[in-house]
Amino acid sequence: MSNGRSAALQCIACHANLTSSSLDHCPRCGADNRAWHAWVSADRREHLERFFLRSAWGRLALVSLLLPPVSWVAFHSGFFASRTLTLLMSSLLSLTGLYLLFTSRDALWTYELTHKVVPRFGIGLLPLGGVGNLIFSAVAAGLVVTSPVFTSQGLGVAVVLVGLAFTAQTLGAGLYAVYAYGRWLSRTFPKPIFLQEACLSQLVIRATKPRIQVKTGDTYETVTTQVAARSRTAQAGLIPLIRAEAGTDEVWEGHYLKAVQHWRVVSDKWGRVTQLKLEGPLEYVPDLGRVCRMFDLRDGGKALDGEIILPEKKVFSR
Question: What is the pTM of this model?
Fold first, then answer.
């Protein structure tokens, strides 16, 4: 594609790979990807314009790139002077950093949203950008205060600090531009699935249910499942504890027993299952919805339904 992105389109909501027959609506999560497909297919110039020119912070980042060459003119230094090389290095660092921010804008916005779901996951874009602006302001204020007493050696140190401050300012503005771009993404396209916990849970349960079984004796029984507990991982994934139940023909005190097994599932933020394992022992509990008639003397001592479990048989329950 002309904008430099991968030709394999992924769903904006769940990152499932889309085929030519499923570009409009994701078969995995049902998200409407028509607008997203059009945006990904847009010319790279439109992406540059959206990121840099339709945001005050993007425009400031571009203006910040001009600070080193303007300072070089102000210092009246020769082309090969150390001060010039310092400012040139500042320009290269600023330009490289801004390019990396632009090419990583979608991933950085995902990082920001993950931080909102799980606050302990890293530092948000706004605080990071604020650090760059704070460095620039602190250096500028320090130079204004100390400039009257500069020596020639002090001027060299000042130029190095100025170069670092210019780079910090450009990157700080660039991070704010990423934030502004990400807010536009959130207003325009479907939200990522990890922001929709109920939908994320449905994806995970649907993926794991065919693999969940309860073994009673030598046979695997058909099960019904429900989520017993749910939590999030440090990367905004999901950890549901699934309770699987299977009916049995065994009877205890007038009720059939059901076999219960718990499964622990771990998924990533996009609903892809990374771990599925048994949690705890196999349990038997009375099924209160299935009543079994006990022995009736008029039936000659025969069991009318099912098997009578002897009192010494252990029944496990939570």
Answer: 0.78
Give the alpha-carbon dihedral of 296, 300, 301, 305, to 10 degrees: -60
Cα-only R_g, the chain: 32
Alpha-carbon distances of 99 from 91, 111, 269, rounded to whole Å: 12, 18, 27
Pure H helices in the chain: 34-40, 44-48, 56-64, 67-75, 82-103, 105-117, 125-146, 152-188, 197-208
The set of residues, in sequence order, having a beta carbon less than 8 Å from that of 238 and lying 6+ positions away, is 197, 200, 201, 204, 230, 231, 232, 265, 266, 267, 271
110-164 residue pLDDT tens: 999 998 888 776 788 999 999 988 888 888 777 666 655 555 556 667 777 888 8
How far apart, in whole angstroms, are the C-alpha atoms of residue 26 and residue 34?
Answer: 10
172 in Cβ contact with 8 (< 8 Å): no
Bridge-partner residues for 128, per DSSP? none
Task: State the Cα–Cα distance between residues 217 and 25, nearest whole angstrom.
Answer: 44
DSSP 112: H
Three-state SS at 33: coil
Cα–Cα distance between 189 and 87 in angstroms, integer? 40
Give residue-wise pLDDT tens across range 254-283. Answer: 778 888 899 999 999 999 999 999 998 888
User: Looking at this protein, which amino acid is placed at residue 39?
Assistant: W
